[in-house]
Auxin efflux carrier component (Cinchona calisaya), 359 residues
Amino acid sequence: MIGWEDVYKVVVAMVPLYLALVLGYGSVKWWRIFRPEQCDAINRFVAFFTLPLFTFEFTAHVDPFKMNYRFIAADAISKVIIVVVLAFWAKCSSKGSYCWSITSFSLSTLTNSLVVGVPLARAMYGQSAVDLVVQVSVIQSIVWLTILLFVLEIRRTRSDFYSTDETLGASNKVGNRPVNDLEENPGALASNTKPSFWSLMKTVWRKLAMNPNSYACIFGITWAFIANRWHVKMPAIIEDSILIMSRAGIGTAMFSMGLFMALQEKIVACGTSLTIFGMVLRFIAGPAAMAIGSIAVGLHGDVLHVAIIQAALPQSITSFIFAKEYGLHADVLSTAVIFGMIVSLPVLVAYYAILEFLH
């Protein structure tokens, strides 16, 4: 049974994150230390340096030979369910869109497992639950955050293609025909200059090849296999070099979020309705999909409970960093992280109590 001491441990894990957030917010709003372009540079530093090293560090220390693959399968099924629903919504609904499907996927599936999930899982179900939460967090980094990065890069590359083509059509003064065609049919330029699938993919893969986030989790899990198969340790000089940056990963991410908040007109930048929408996806849709996936693979008892509770953990901080870097609904993701962590504790305790009562 979770007690006040356990709740205190979770609060202890969360308060330093809000300190970093407040420092970032104050450095722009109160002390005027950073300009907007400098805030963007700090977010890029987080996205391309501290977070990849943080991802490598925790991935490299998992034991892949002791993973609960049924638990991981349940998590995969739950995310596939979300993807199918969002794809159907984007295709068939007048209100659906590709961009909102990406954001909705982040809101409903990507969790902050390590900071909040680990102490809470230990308090509720012990070390075995901690192992499960860490395992699913590793898979999230290897598979789902990589897929998110891929689709975000596709979206940005397509946008770059079209913006470049439109600029060349508008600035071409050599002949009157391109201009006349554009005046008569505004959609003609986009249709005539639509990039081929392979040229688009070539550009996307080239950009991903230069992104350290693409390698961090792969190198980390590769080392985990080597280390646990042949019982070798990483040389101290390498491990310490990684740790000195990776330890700043989550803190600098929250600091960057504080910078972003300070540049907005309101603290709740996305508005009340979108905040509620994000909370519903985070704390209801995600756990519901996970419950379906868990039952489908035959999870039961405490493992089933851990699966549902970990799906209701607050929003992944990395999802905000990616959203900010790629310019897609960063206001919604920042609000989901900030208020999600505040709301998560009572929500998770409520889930725990309900599941124990039903059990």
Summary: Residues 84 and 90 are 10 Å apart (CA to CA). The chain has a mean pLDDT of 89. The radius of gyration is 22 Å.
